[in-house]
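Practice problem: predict the structure.
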Amino acid sequence: MHFSPSTEDPPKHFSVSYRNTLSITGSSMIRLKILPSVRCLFDKMVQIKVEGLAPLKPVELRSKLVDDRGVIFKASAQYKADETGQVDVCNAPSLGGSYTGVEPMGLFWAMAPDTPHSKLLKKNVLSPTQVEIAALCGETGELLSSETNERGYMTEGMKRIPVQEGRIRGVLFIPPGKGPFPGIVDLYTLGGGLTEPRASLLANKGFVVLALAYYGYQGLPKNPTNLDLEYFEEGITYLRRQPEVKGPGIGIISVSHSGALALSMSSFLSGISATVFINGCSANTVIPLHYKDTVIPALPPVIKNVKITDSGLVDIRDALPDPALEKNRASLIPIERASCQFLFAASEDDHNWNSAFFAQQAAATLRNHGKESFQLVTYPKAGHFLEVPHMPYCPSGFHAAVGRAVVFGGEPKAHSEAQLDLWERVQEFFKSHLDNKSTC
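Answer:
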């Protein structure tokens, strides 16, 4: 794949400018540029160039950010200036470091945490993520020039509204403009709390997005003994009532544990048109799910299938059994009841669980009931957390259900490419299916 920086105009409040540390070496002035602007949205590409170098001289580029937990993420790459004394990472190959080859955004997705098993944490989307980019002499390590890329989450005029309505807890993002806009509920993963980056960035694309917490957040239970689907029904009702939301149907986007919630909402609740299921399970897991008189128990893991990697991490990829087996069928989500459209996305090297198997199983269930209302996309060599584009790859991390660090699988470059591809598919999927008249 070849990617080039977006030629779109940056949002109005992003001025096209750059501020540089200038280093004078002999008669040349070395300058690091971030184009088209030092300020952009998090999911946008930028072009990094270094000018004024001696021809064919080695230069090292480094990136660094500090997340909201104080964890430092870093990457580095070795380049060689061309005959004109320039390095353009969109064209020049990295010769070593965190990645090799021509990777325009390698300094972003290849960043790794100084603290092992850390996933990038961004709580407050009102402020940008600051990524420092530095050029150093490849021979002496001397700092030649540096710049900071401010990667934001909200365009000018977007509204971020904390939600405390009845039982509902979350944050509503409303894009600028007259509207009305299609509405989407964003569900995140096991671990409690609320995650806003994906919801805010999706709202920039012309959707009203409700990032909906479901435990461990603002008075919601910290350790729920069951999940009440009627809570999520209230969330759908709340979103549909907003004057900025265009009906008739609502979208859902999920990842990991919330995948089964999204399938359950699509199967039991009305008013849902399009559901995105990313690296989820086709059965309910971890916490029993209740809806009126229906109880869907959690699929019990097979502990003997848990493995320990050579590095001492837990590998739970094969811990969950086939939910279609007779003894497990009570945990299976009855998605044959759903009449909405589905986008099933799965990483083939997901080690949180066998996502590709579960996605294919869900698709087969629909097909066996005469329904072709789905798209299925799988990504070889991608790991568990398929996030927004350019998010640093997370190979391992603490797992709330396991109580210790687990391996999440994948390879950094393939994972990054999967995130880029899926982000475009998600937008197109919602645009295609949230304007039609069919709902679950």
